[in-house]
Design a protein that fits this description.
mainly alpha, two-stranded antiparallel ribbon
Length: about 140
């Protein structure tokens, strides 16, 4: 059983998946920083200084709180719709970047596949008109 597990782990697909997950986690940190540190200030500037992360509604308890963190620290139940908006923005940005990456990789793969097909000699190439005429001539000479 251990050898089967070792063989399974050593397969290329499992190792590729592990590398993809590690790269994905690092990529998520980069995108999160891009959204938090670059895009949110720009979006906030256009929306009059609104910071989505602090948009919330108190569902239980009395009082007003300066920030979402203060409300959570006070132990009140909050409806943190700003955090959801930020998660949605993060998702859209990540999905777009992944789309661009996949599209670029597919274009590179297609180009290299076309180049390989063009460079490979074709064993089953269609006969040219000259080849057909030569075959006809040879057949006529035999008869």
């Amino acid at each position: 059983m251990f050898s089967d597990f070792r063989d399974f782990i050593a397969k290329g697909n499992v190792m590729d998946m592990a590398v993809g997950i590690i790269i994905g986690a690092a990529f998520t940190a980069i995108v999160k920083s891009m959204v938090d540190d670059l895009l949110n200030p720009i979006i906030g500037l256009f929306l009059g200084g609104v910071d989505f992360t602090n948009l919330f509604m108190v569902l239980s308890g009395d009082g007003t709180y300066a920030s979402l963190e203060a409300a959570r620290d006070a132990g009140v139940s909050v409806f943190a719709y700003g955090a959801f908006i930020m998660a949605l923005i993060n998702f859209i940005i990540i999905a777009f970047v992944v789309f661009i990456l996949v599209r670029t990789v597919n274009k590179v793969k297609d180009a290299s596949a076309r180049k390989a097909v063009e460079e490979a000699p074709s064993e089953h190439a269609s006969p040219t008109e000259l080849d057909i005429l030569k075959e006809i001539r040879d057949a006529l000479q035999k008869s």
